[in-house]
Amino acid sequence: MKSKNIMVFGGGDLQISLVKKIRQDEYKAIVIDPDENAICKSIADHFEIVSGSDYKKTCQLVEKYKIDGIVTAATDKPLLMMARIAEKYEFSSFSKKAARLSTDKYLMKLAFKRFGIPHAKGGLFCRKDELPEFPCIIKPRDNSGSRGVIYCKDKYDYLQSIESSYEYTTKSTLLVEEYIDGPEYSVETIHYRGKSKIIQITEKITTDLPYNVELGHIQPADIPPSIQKKIEKVINKIAVALDFDNCVSHTELKIIRDNIVVIETSPRLGGDFITSHLVALSTGIDIEELLIKIILNKRFKIPRANHRSAAIKYHFFPEGKVASVQDVQLPDYVVGYEQKVKPGCRVKPIKSSLDRYGYIIVEAATRKDLFIRLNTCEELIKKSIKFVDHD
After folding, report:
1. How far apart are CA 333 and CA 242, in angstroms?
2. 103: how many CB neighbours lie within 10 A of its CB?
3. Contact 231, 262 (CB under 8 A)
4. CA atoms of 280 and 34, how far apart (whole Å)
């Protein structure tokens, strides 16, 4: 039987798990990325350097490698291109409408409003003399990973932050929206043949304002069944409003006094190892495997979920210059670990996901055991790093 050829859009570290899964399934992974040094280059069956806007070359590669399906993970950048390719070659994937609405946060909000989906109210501001109500959040319309997302408590903050936010957008306007004060969650969902099924709900840990960068994810979220039912209804509305089908989705929302407020959504796998590691650890369901079946148009049944706990925590250190870093012996229940702090480097404030200093992934049978294990590991890591007292 002919092996299937799958084109992966993006070859960064957040696509590694997906590329490995494709090859474990004995399919061929053809990875495209504009960076000639992309980390997935060494594990792909074939690697091609392609600009994210080069539609003609992408089509040529689809035909050269006789591609059977296309996929990405944890990035919004290739979604519009993927939707065009999927339509041209009749691949099983999300639509151009889904890609267009989910890659422009302003258009997304208009769709939310039109379909009665509760969301953070917002609008477009392009001049400094147009002042919103405070407090507010300013963000690029066309980026992700908390890049350029800044909390503004007053006019001074707003005027000081505009230029920083503009560094992360290609648009002439920014999105300014009301600040929603409350716990944040993400929802991983399968949309297949007109039906939507939530696989897991994740509880988020973030930095303090003004940047609100994600520092951790805990599964499952500690929310009552009644709120889960409300989330299911909201997700079904989102699927209709944004035309999500034959795809997965990653939706971010807040819960305020038992009410759901949607922040944003996208028809792709979640980042920060949520779908590559945590979902499988906490539910036993391999959502990457299910996505591969979707893009190859293979029928499947979603397995019954297990009920375990898993988390990722990103390292958070005080500002200062690092004097020394010792090796640390971590327990067997640690599933993943990365340490980016080196002797002589200076720890600076975390303003986006790109600024984080490594992570630890832990699994356990219960949430209680999970937090005990996380605390143990975090203490071991902190003790392994010494800072210079005086510069």
Report:
1. 39
2. 21
3. no
4. 30
**What is the per-residue burial (b if ≥16 Cβ within 10 Å, else e) of 274-302?**
bbbbbbbbbbebbbbbbbbbbbbeeeeee
- Strand boundaries in the chain, DSSP class E: 5-9, 28-33, 46-49, 69-71, 122-125, 136-139, 150-152, 174-178, 184-192, 195-206, 214-219, 247-256, 259-266, 309-314, 320-325, 334-339, 346-347, 358-364, 385-387
Is residue 363 a contact partner of residue 282, using CB atoms and an 8 Å limit?
yes
Q: With CA atoms as reference, report the closest residue to 3 among 65, 57, 63.
A: 65
Cα separation, 82 vs 88, in Å, equals: 10
- 256-291: per-residue pLDDT in tens? 999 999 999 999 999 999 999 999 999 999 999 999
Question: Is 390's pLDDT higher than 80?
Answer: no
* Cα–Cα nearest to 258, from 236, 209, 225: 225
Q: What is the pLDDT of residues 322-342, one digit of tens each?
A: 999 999 999 999 999 999 999
Mean pLDDT, residues 152-165 taken together:
91
Q: Are 162 and 128 in contact (CB under 8 A)?
A: yes
Residue 278's identity, in one-letter code, is L
